[in-house]
Amino acid sequence: MSKLKAITAIVLIAEAEKLFNNYPDLKEVYLTADGQGFYEKEKAENHAAYLENKEVSFFKREEVLTNNEAPKTPANEADTTPPEQGEQTNEDENAEVSEAEAERASLLAMYAEKFGKKAPHNIGLEKLKEALRED
Fold it and tell me: Region labeled Disordered — which residues (predicted)?
């Protein structure tokens, strides 16, 4: 096996391991040379037809995840330590997001009342405020 094929095989095995860790119900996967994963062989072959390297590799969960490894979770020391003083926590971020959502919802209701129709779904907050200021 050439050095390039060996490197490609290592990369594909690592990609298969990621897929199996992210999708615990996945039993087998077909990977193309560019690292795209597919459940069905036909779809992998169709994708590979457009690649320079048309090989499709097949991996089974048992072969890739040896010793019955469980899916890895990112539980490291940084995840378990409490935040430092002054650091923003997820709760603070969620509170800010919910306040912004509440403000947007009230502005959308005011827009609908003023103009008799719903505001465009993708209108920005600043444009929404500007439209409500205008007569």
Answer: 64-102
